[in-house]
Amino acid sequence: MAGKTVIISNQPYFYKKAELFPGSAFVIGADTAARLVNPKYYDGSYSKMLEILDGCKRTGCTFLVGGRNVDGVFKVLEDIDIPEVLKDMFVSIPAEQFRMDISSTEIRKKMGM
C-alpha cells in the first residue's frame, strides 16, 4: 500500500463518501458489506439499494471486504449475497492476508472516544 493516501471520514453514508472521494477503495468488514446490500437500510426498497450503490459504482468506488466475526462465526465476502450487478465493486481480502477480530467500536472504547 506504499504511496497510497488513507483518509478517515466521519461521514456515515458510503454514497456521500463516494461523492466526496470518487475512485476510492473503502475498507470494510463483511458485516458492513452485508448491511450495504440489505434493503432494510434503504427504506425496505431493493431498487433504492441498487440505485444508491450503482451511484457509488459510477464514481469508481470499490469496497475491500475483510472477514469479521458475526455472532461467533467468521464471515467473509463470499458468505454475502451481493447482487450480480454490484459484484465487481466488492473485493475480498483473504483472511490469510488480514484478520483482526476486533471491531472499530471496541477500538474507540479503548481510546476513550
UniProtKB/TrEMBL annotation:
Cellular component, GO annotation: cytoplasm; nucleus
Origin superkingdom: Eukaryota
Protein's recorded name: Uncharacterized protein
GO molecular function terms attached to this record: ATP hydrolysis activity; nicotinamide-nucleotide adenylyltransferase activity
InterPro entries for the chain: Rossmann-like_a/b/a_fold (IPR014729)
PANTHER family: NICOTINAMIDE MONONUCLEOTIDE ADENYLYLTRANSFERASE
